[in-house]
Amino acid sequence: MKIILLGYMGVGKSTLGNALAKELEINFIDLDAYIEQKEGKSISDLFVNKAEISFRKKETNYLKQILNHESSFVLSLGGGTPCYANNMELINKYSKNTFYLKASFQFLSKRLYNEKNVRPLLQHLKHLDEFEDFIRKHLFERQNYYFLANFTINVETQSIENNITQILNQLN
C-alpha cells in the first residue's frame, strides 16, 4: 500500500503522514527529508545554490526512486512536487491512494507567516499583505495539480485523528 499526501506547504502533510504511518504500522517518508539526507544539504541550500529548476529535477528523480519501492509507506510530498515534470501522472500511476490535504489561503497564511524565514519560496516576502497575496496566487496556481489526487481532505476544520479516520475510510 502506497499512500501519498500532497498539498501546499504548511498544510500538515508531514505531521499527518507520520501519525497515519504509525496508525497503519508502515514506513513514513517525508520527500524533503529524504532529499536532504541523500544530498547532504538542506532544501534551502539546494534552492539557493542550485536554483529551483535544478532542485525540481533532483526531486523528480528521488520521487521515482521512492515510488519504485515494493514496500508499503506513507509519503509526504513537498508542496511543489506535484506541479513539476510529469510528477502527478507518475504519482497516480503508482498509487490510487493519493490525498490532497486542502486548506484556505487564510489558514495557510496564518500558519506560514512566522515560518517564512525557513521556507525558500517565502523568504523574500517582508510584509503581511505581500505575503498573503503570494500565498493566494501560488495556491491558486498549484490547485489544478492538487485536485488530480484521488481524494481531498479539508484539514483546517478537523483534528489529526479525524483526518486519519477519513483517510482510512477511503483507502483502496
Automatic annotation (TrEMBL):
Cofactor(s) of this protein: Mg(2+)
Subcellular location: Cytoplasm
Pathway note: Metabolic intermediate biosynthesis; chorismate biosynthesis; chorismate from D-erythrose 4-phosphate and phosphoenolpyruvate: step 5/7
Record: residues binding ATP: 10-15, 119, 158
A GO MF label: ATP binding
InterPro entries: P-loop_NTPase, Shikimate/glucono_kinase, Shikimate_kinase/TSH1
Annotated residues for binding of substrate: 32, 56, 79, 142
EC number: 2.7.1.71
Family from the record: Belongs to the shikimate kinase family.
Purpose: Catalyzes the specific phosphorylation of the 3-hydroxyl group of shikimic acid using ATP as a cosubstrate.
Main location: cytoplasm
Known partners and oligomeric status: Monomer.
Enzyme class name: transferase
Catalysis: reaction(s): shikimate + ATP = 3-phosphoshikimate + ADP + H(+)
BP terms from Gene Ontology: amino acid biosynthetic process; aromatic amino acid family biosynthetic process; chorismate biosynthetic process
Protein name: Shikimate kinase
